[in-house]
Recover the amino acids of this structure.
């Protein structure tokens, strides 16, 4: 028929349909539509357009069918075709012919052909995913055909072998007769049929479809679950004999066990928590042992898997734990990758149908070798999992870190890798904390804990603490303290000092790169870099904080102000204040009003050098009246006060202020004693001249003077001790430390040490209560003396006054010309003088008692001093008794002081 | 003849006719070796379709389907 040169594909296609179907054009409409659709949808070929590849395939196929002559013929033809160069698309036609080719030995069932060709034609190297994804249809098929034979794997290859085996094995259900094509062995068909009967239509289709390829040689492997029934039937068919498990069967089982799934022969025994080969299987000992050794890998895998599965459900596990699980997942993925490679290797051998021989087949030994490295890996991971049970947060990181201390470099690198992943959250917490002062730690994993109930005034002291259990073992205690301090400083600045300077301005250090890099740095020799970062951040932040405190809040100025006012440093002010306050404070305490006293304070300030102080300081100075107990005079309730707030209150906490007030109290009292004694002295000076005319008083006055001198000496020594030994030295030390302080904690510590020293040296702490009481007793005596002396002087002066009056009157009378003195007046005068003179011994004795009392107290005080533990107090005792005046009187003081210059306390 | 018709689509000059005829012979022989079951006319149609760029995979599946339809 004369056809035009070029026909359109559609027309050609229609012709094709007509020819194949053998019908006229009108009838083929449906098929034609179908054909057009198929061709239209599969437009691009999925394989490479390589002519030679296809030719090779054809040759291989022919060889496989044992048609070497035909293969040679084909080569010849192909060469001819190639030389002719008429066809432009040789690949295409060759591929088509290959697809349509049929093995003459195969049965005529077109369906089977299709499936076979489909199976064969799919390019094997286009897929790399595990076998169950690639060719689902062929999967069970191969297992099926494994099921067709029962001989050990020792190399019975060859398609003919299969047929014969199938023949022998199928004793059981009689195969239904089927139409045969010439050249087909009907045993395989029978197999397909009986299987079809047993397994249902779906599988049967795939099964029978693969009948031809069941003749492909490698006879490894064990039947899987599907064909288990088949083997059973076969077994029934066989005449007795225990079934021997082939090594290939074991290999397949092992591959399942590697994933934690029970194989046919190797199952997990829960009682003993290990994999065991089923006892009744007939297996040589060496194979059994090797299989069990390999099964350990599955056990390790299960353990790790269980851990990660459990933990992934646990909501409160925290970020560190989650990254740990992620790291484990990653490792398991690698493991699965290996498994899939092994599986595909197995699959490859199943499918290829080429006699590869035993060199590259999977055996248990080969598996042992290949899984050696993964086994070490999994062992390490399982050990890690065990060790990390129940831990989270920084503890988990410490646990993992503990495992990096091993000599095995492989294990070490693995654990270090995991550690770097695990410590990533910890480090990111850390960096956020030290650069921003922010802490977002919902699972309590970080080692800095924040207490949300604490308010800003206690921020520095109470709000942030170290959670010691969460400190990872790769950070030292010192580092973690520094970290805590840095974050605390930043928060302090932000909240208490109201200083919102962003950290980057504060710290010239640029923010680091991603923490994982630092994690790696952390563990390698660049540990110094990490330490350096922390140090730099610490240094800069603290410096900035101190700057702010000093400049904006003048911390050091306030400290000095405290010294001047509360610790009586500003002498002229204190003296003037006392002068002004004296008339007020002798009144009973209940009559005092605060505003009066404040007014007096202001006056004192304005009149002395204190007025040149900064107004900030003066603003905070105030009067405080202590609690009034009955019988108190003003002296007992008066106190100065200094107000602190804001950031200063962090250093001068309430406890500190109460310490200061106590010390003030003590110092004020001592000062008052000094003041009193000065008054006494003044009295002496003034009245000595006047009373020279009354010789009978001279004894009393003399005694008075002596006692007063003793007391003056005592008080002087005390004052010296307090001022120089206690206050000045401690203050100097404090000042030095504060100037050199690197961060706020140092300042606070130094300040507290200062207060402690002062308190103990001023006899205010609990250990020196006895001494303090003695001292108070001394002070009381001084007051007594003052009172006594006042009384004496009053009486003496009154007497003097009277006598003068008498003399006056006498003179007056003489001038008037009368008797100077009448007898009665003289009598009265004499009587009065006699009375007066009689009262003198009373005064004397009173003074004597006072003296005696006083000296007793002082001696007791001295004894106590010499037994105290503080060196300076002991030296005070020497000074107080410099001429051993008391030692002469007090036998106890004569006992030697011993080697340490200290008497024992048992006196 | 179908062969002539087939080859007419491929080559125009009579000098090529021999080559074409030889090519067809070769292809027929290959087809016979491979036992594809294609007769001459069908083969020529297929050749023409392939030369025109049809995907051989799709074509082969079509042919198989058609054959199946014939059988069924």
């Amino acid at each position: 028929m004369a056809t035009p040169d070029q026909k359109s594909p559609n027309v050609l296609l229609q012709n094709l349909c007509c020819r194949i179907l053998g019908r006229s054009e009108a009838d083929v409409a449906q098929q034609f539509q179908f054909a057009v659709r198929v061709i239209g949808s599969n437009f691009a070929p999925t394989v490479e357009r390589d002519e030679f590849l296809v030719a090779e395939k054809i040759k291989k196929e022919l060889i496989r069918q044992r048609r070497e002559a035909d293969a040679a013929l084909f080569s010849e033809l192909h060469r001819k075709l190639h030389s002719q160069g008429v066809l432009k698309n040789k690949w295409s036609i060759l591929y088509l012919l290959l697809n349509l080719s049929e093995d003459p030995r195969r049965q005529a069932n077109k369906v089977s052909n299709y499936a076979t060709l489909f199976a064969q034609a799919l390019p094997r190297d286009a897929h790399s995913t595990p076998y169950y994804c690639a060719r689902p249809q062929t999967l069970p098929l191969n297992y099926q055909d494994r099921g067709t034979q029962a001989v050990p794997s020792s190399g019975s290859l060859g398609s003919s072998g299969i047929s014969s085996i199938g023949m022998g094995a199928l004793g059981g259900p009689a195969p239904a007769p089927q139409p045969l094509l010439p050249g087909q062995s009907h045993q395989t068909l029978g197999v397909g049929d009986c299987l079809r009967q047993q397994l249902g239509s779906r599988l049967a289709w795939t099964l029978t479809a693969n009948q031809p390829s069941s003749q492909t040689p490698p006879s490894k492997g064990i039947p899987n679950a599907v064909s288990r029934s088949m083997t059973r039937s076969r077994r029934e068919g066989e005449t007795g004999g225990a079934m021997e498990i082939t090594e290939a069967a074991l290999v397949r089982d092992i591959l399942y066990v590697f994933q934690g799934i029970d194989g046919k022969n190797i199952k997990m025994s829960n009682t003993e928590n290990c994999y065991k080969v089923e006892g009744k299987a007939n297996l040589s000992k060496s194979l059994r042992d090797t299989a069990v050794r390999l099964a350990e890998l599955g056990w390790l895998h299960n353990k790790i898997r269980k851990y990660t599965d459990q933990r992934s459900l646990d909501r409160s596990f925290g970020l560190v734990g989650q990254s740990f699980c992620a790291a484990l997942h990653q490792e398991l993925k690698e493991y699965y990758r290996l498994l899939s490679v092994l599986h595909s290797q197995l699959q490859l051998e199943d499918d290829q149908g080429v006699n590869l021989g035993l060199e590259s087949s999977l055996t248990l030994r080969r598996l042992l070798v290949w899984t050696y490295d993964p086994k070490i890996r999994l062992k390490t991971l399982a050990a890690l999992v065990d060790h990390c049970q129940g831990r989270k947060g920084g503890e988990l990181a410490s646990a993992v870190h503990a495992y990096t201390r091993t000599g095995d470099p492989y294990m070490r690198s693995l654990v270090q890798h995991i550690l770097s992943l695990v410590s990533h959250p910890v480090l990111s917490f850390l960096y956020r904390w030290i650069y921003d002062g922010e802490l977002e730690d919902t699972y309590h994993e970080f080692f800095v804990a924040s207490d949300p109930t604490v308010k800003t005034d206690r921020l520095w002291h109470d709000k942030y603490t170290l959670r010691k259990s969460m400190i990872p073992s790769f950070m030292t205690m010192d580092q973690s303290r520094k970290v805590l301090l840095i974050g605390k400083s930043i928060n302090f600045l932000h909240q208490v000092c109201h200083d919102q300077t962003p950290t980057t301005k504060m710290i010239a250090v640029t923010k680091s790169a991603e923490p994982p890099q630092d994690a790696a740095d952390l563990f390698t020799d660049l540990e110094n870099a990490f330490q350096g970062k922390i140090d730099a951040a610490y240094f800069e932040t603290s410096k900035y904080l101190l700057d702010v405190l000093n400049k904006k809040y003048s911390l050091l100025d306030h400290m000095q102000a405290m010294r001047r006012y509360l610790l009586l440093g500003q002498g002229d002010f204190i003296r003037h204040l006392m002068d002004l306050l004296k008339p007020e404070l002798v009144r009973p305490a209940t009559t005092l009003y605060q505003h009066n006293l404040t007014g007096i304070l202001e006056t004192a300030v304005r009149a002395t050098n204190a007025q040149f102080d900064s107004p900030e300081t003066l603003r905070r100075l105030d009067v405080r009246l202590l609690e009034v107990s009955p019988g108190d005079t003003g002296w007992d309730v008066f106190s100065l006060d200094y107000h602190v707030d804001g950031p200063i209150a962090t250093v001068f906490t309430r406890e500190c202020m109460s310490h200061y007030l106590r010390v003030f109290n003590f110092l004020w009292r001592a000062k008052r004693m000094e003041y009193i004694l000065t008054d006494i002295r003044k009295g002496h000076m003034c009245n000595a001249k006047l009373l020279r005319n009354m010789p009978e008083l001279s004894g009393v006055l003399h005694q008075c003077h002596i006692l007063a001198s003793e007391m003056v000496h005592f008080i002087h020594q005390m004052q010296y001790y307090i001022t120089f030994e206690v206050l000045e030295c401690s203050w100097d030390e404090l000042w030095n430390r504060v100037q050199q302080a690197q961060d706020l904690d140092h300042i606070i510590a130094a300040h507290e040490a200062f207060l402690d020293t002062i308190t103990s040296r001023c006899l205010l702490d609990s250990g020196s209560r006895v001494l303090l009481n003695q001292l108070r007793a001394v002070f009381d005596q001084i007051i007594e003396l003052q009172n006594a002396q006042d009384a004496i002087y009053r009486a003496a002066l009154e007497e003097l006054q009277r006598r003068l009056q008498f003399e006056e009157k006498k003179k007056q009378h003489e001038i008037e010309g009368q008797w100077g003195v009448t007898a009665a007046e003289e009598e009265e005068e004499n009587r009065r003088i006699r009375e007066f003179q009689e009262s003198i011994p009373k005064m004397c004795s009173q003074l004597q008692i006072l003296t005696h009392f006083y000296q007793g107290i002082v001696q007791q005080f001295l004894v106590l001093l010499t037994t105290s533990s503080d060196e300076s107090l002991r030296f005070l005792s020497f000074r107080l008794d410099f001429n051993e005046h008391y030692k002469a009187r007090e036998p106890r003081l004569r006992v030697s002081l011993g080697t340490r210059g200290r008497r024992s306390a048992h006196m | 003849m179908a062969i002539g018709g087939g080859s007419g689509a491929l080559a125009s000059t009579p000098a090529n006719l021999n080559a074409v005829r030889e090519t067809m012979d070769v292809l027929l022989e290959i087809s016979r070796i491979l036992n594809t079951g294609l007769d001459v006319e069908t083969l020529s149609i297929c050749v023409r379709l392939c030369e025109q760029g049809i995907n051989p995979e799709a074509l082969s599946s079509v042919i198989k389907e058609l054959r199946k339809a014939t059988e069924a």
